[in-house]
Amino acid sequence: MHGLSLSIDESDDDEELSGDSGWIPWFCGLKGHELFAEVEEEYVRDNFNLYGLRGRFAFYDHALEMILSTEAPDEDDLADTEFLEIYRDATDLYGLIHARYIVSPRGLQVMREKYLKGTFGTCPRVLCDRQHVLPIGTAEDPRNAQVNIFCPKCEQVYSPKSKYKELDGAYFGTSFPQIFLQSFPSLVPLEFTRAFVPRVFGFRLHKQKSLITRKLEEEGVVPPQSSTRQGERPSTAKNDMAGSLSAPCEI
């Protein structure tokens, strides 16, 4: 189930089990949690930022207290059944707070630094030339779908690396890439997206539709195109980012 990650059990790093840091740095430092930004304590303590969340969790108060704790869990905590019940709520609560934080002015700056460093990874599409990607969800509610990655160049959504597949997409929201790129227009790729051109023994077939285009037309997914060139997208209009969320591509 998406949302609960105890990758601490798979780590040999003793620092992850130490109580020297607060819960938030500990949680964000777990294996596979590199996509997370550390939400500032002041942001979490502001009730305005938590509006509408209380009624969604059975252990809201305890979960919030855990998130704001100055100590990280130890081995005994992680073996306690009651603790784990609260931890599940704390994980989802932090995730939903995180989704709000990363579209705030401060959160956007934090995510910008991660994006520039390539923390979120690169597009798996060869012709995108290792374009940096952004995390995105396909649902606003937790435990519906895993996080995906969005490429600003080809404007497609892909499944992330396996170590991120336990992360819930709701922890990043469905609007983050759009808000991020609108906030930092200089980061929008200017290079034209190159289309793959299928060839037969090195020869391009002129005035013939690609196999994919023909299949889409036969299945009624797209209307017939009378002058689609080989390797050209069925529609010359720029893909809408929201529309890309309907069919993530597997890598």
What does this structure look like?
This protein has 251 residues and is mainly alpha-helical. Helix content is 29%, strand content 3%. It is built from eight helices and three strands. It has helices at residues 23-28, 41-45, 60-67, 75-78, 81-101, 105-117, 176-183, 211-218, and strands at 134-136, 148-150, 157-158. The protein has a three-stranded antiparallel beta sheet with strand order 1-2-3, with no helix packed on it. A hairpin with a 6-residue loop joins strand 2 and strand 3 (157-158). Helix 3 (60-67) crosses helix 5. The longest helix has 21 residues, at 81-101.
**Care to count the β-strands?**
3
Largest sheet: 3 strands, antiparallel
**Shape call:** elongated
The number of helical runs is 8
How far is the first residue's CA from the last residue's CA?
Answer: 21 Å
Write the H/E string, N to C: HHHHHHEEEHH
Kindly state the percentage of residues in helix: 25-40%
**Uncertain parts:** 7-19, 227-246
Quaternary organization = single chain
What tags apply to this protein structure?
mainly alpha; about 250 residues; 3 strands; about 30% helix; elongated
